Amino acid sequence: MSWRCLSDLPRSLLAIGPIVVLGAIFGVLYLTSPFGDLGSVDDASTLEIIWMLTVIGALAGVVPVAIGMLWFPFIRDLDPRYLHAFLALAAGVLVFIALEMSEDVLEYSVDAENTLLAGSLAVIGVVGTFVVMYVASKWRQRKVTATDKSGLEIAYLVALALGLHSIGEGLGIGVAYIQGDSTLVMLLVLAFVLHNVMEGPTVVAAVARDRETPPLYHFAAMGLIAGGPVILGGWIGSFAQSDLLAVLFFSIAVGAIVQVLIEVAELIRFDAEAVLTRVNAATFVVGFALMFFLEDVLGDLLLEGWLVPP
């Protein structure tokens, strides 16, 4: 099925369809608790551990991002000012994630045996990633004229930044899995599904401003870049539990997000009189507040046992 086929569906269905799909998947996971008893994980082979974490990571990362990307046909037909508002909402999502990971960097740095080394890695990760991505962005802009500036390239940068962040999610899943805590694994997956579904529209919002819709393989690639690293993080978390490693990955993600926020602002400025408008400011706050609700409210309810699966 192509995006053109989806675009022919009623607008109301395009708006609520991904929510229905998410609810169905969330319900199946919540009611079936498919990961079972992990008490025998110590006897599992390396291949079995890698395979199971691949499946879990795909459910927690790739699937919800793909669901969120189903909003693309709805976003595609929005008036430019509302499209800019959607980009501002995406920025709110990214800022929340960056602040959340900054807190993680601080916590892991304090817990590390060598605090000075951890702090150095954090600075190198944030500054180094920002500089590399900034230089690459300027090089790209010199290669194309302003009128040819592509939202697809920005979307790939957003996917990359979110993918680096997703490694941290996978680290948590991998640690819980190797400890044999099936309940915690289930709760983490449910929390990350809620969290990551918003990454889909965050990625495709930049593409929606382009005149031509890119081929579907670009969407598949961006979905894998944004959600797939949950799998990589799960592997790392199960075999190489390290505070310093967590500091490095989280700080790299923070640096990437800072650069992406600049790109998003420039994308809005390209065909708008102002970046900071009332509508953009409102949707930015909505994006931040929505992620706070999904992560710190519903996520905490899950982890504290208020919404424990049967």
TrEMBL record:
<feature type="transmembrane region" description="Helical">
    <location>
        <begin position="50"/>
        <end position="75"/>
    </location>
</feature>
<keyword id="KW-1133">Transmembrane helix</keyword>
<protein>
    <submittedName>
        <fullName>Metal cation transporter</fullName>
    </submittedName>
</protein>
<feature type="transmembrane region" description="Helical">
    <location>
        <begin position="82"/>
        <end position="101"/>
    </location>
</feature>
<feature type="transmembrane region" description="Helical">
    <location>
        <begin position="219"/>
        <end position="238"/>
    </location>
</feature>
<feature type="transmembrane region" description="Helical">
    <location>
        <begin position="184"/>
        <end position="207"/>
    </location>
</feature>
<feature type="transmembrane region" description="Helical">
    <location>
        <begin position="12"/>
        <end position="30"/>
    </location>
</feature>
<feature type="transmembrane region" description="Helical">
    <location>
        <begin position="244"/>
        <end position="262"/>
    </location>
</feature>
<feature type="transmembrane region" description="Helical">
    <location>
        <begin position="274"/>
        <end position="294"/>
    </location>
</feature>
<feature type="transmembrane region" description="Helical">
    <location>
        <begin position="156"/>
        <end position="178"/>
    </location>
</feature>
<keyword id="KW-0812">Transmembrane</keyword>
<feature type="transmembrane region" description="Helical">
    <location>
        <begin position="116"/>
        <end position="136"/>
    </location>
</feature>
<keyword id="KW-0472">Membrane</keyword>
